[in-house]
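Collaborator request, handled under Task 6.
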Amino acid sequence: MMKKLYLFLLLSVLPVYGFLYADSNKQPQKIKQEVKAGENTEDVPYIAIAVDKSEVNVGDIVDLTITYKLPEGSSFNGAGSNGSKSDGFELEGLEGLTVVSKKAENGDIKLKVIIDKVQPFKIGPVTLTFKDKNDELNIIKSEEIDINVKSNLGDKPAEARLKPIEDIFPTYPVWLRILPYALIALGALAVIAGLLYWNKRRSRQKQILSEIKLPHVVAREELKKLVQLKLIEKGRYKDFYFRFSEILRIYIERLRSFPAAEMTSEEIIKKIRDERDRQLIPLLRDSDLVKFADMVPTTYKIEEDIKSALRYIKDTTPVETVVEHRSGVME
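Structure tokens returned to the collaborator:
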């Protein structure tokens, strides 16, 4: 019975002992040492901060340089002590600063910081935690830097006269200032473009109108060309009167606006309403006699027909000629 009791006690104690033994081997990582700036030796790690200006105005930017050194075998956030990943760790002590830019250069960390506070302005101390080669935590801490911030109001702020903020920094978009000038420029360009278009259009209209010949001008020119062909001298009477009749038909067609060129002489005569156009009737009938009845006119008769045609054209020419362009422009 006693043996069973001893065995039971032994089995009960062994698990507790094993748990305590295992837990005793799990020791938490402790900070081994805290080193301040200025202790720069071969074996001792260090960190230091420096600025390029000790006296600034509010709103200035200063260059802050952080220099550090870690022992061989040290690391932070997976980065080695050679500093190749200097952005791989977070520095403490810079939380209240407005940092414009940050970069690593030659093992140092260079920051651009805006001075956005009035005196006093302090930077630091800056601390960096790392693991040494024995996997133990270490902390290095820099000194604190004081920066003298001068007032923008001068040496006697109470006597300073403040300027309106718009004289320093515009309170409205820049494009609003140039908008009136842009509108004026656009307006000037539109006026110039309009004048150029109008001038080009007017020149084109003049060119078209100059190319359009009035009916009486065309008829006289065609009669002159017909006489210059000397068809009568060559005995080609029919050819002469075919062309002579065609010239007169086209003239009255353009003058009275009916298709005289496609009508017979009798159909044209029935269309005549103006008393002056009755001068055309004997000329059309004389032409038909030569064209279809093989009549041979005398030279005198031909000359009289040409004079009658010119007289008819002259009598029916308007005193004031109005040419209406197809676009509706009147000249």
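The cover message to the collaborator said: "The longest helix spans residues 174-211. The chain has three domains: 31-152, 172-211, 215-315. Please let us know whether this matches your experimental observations."
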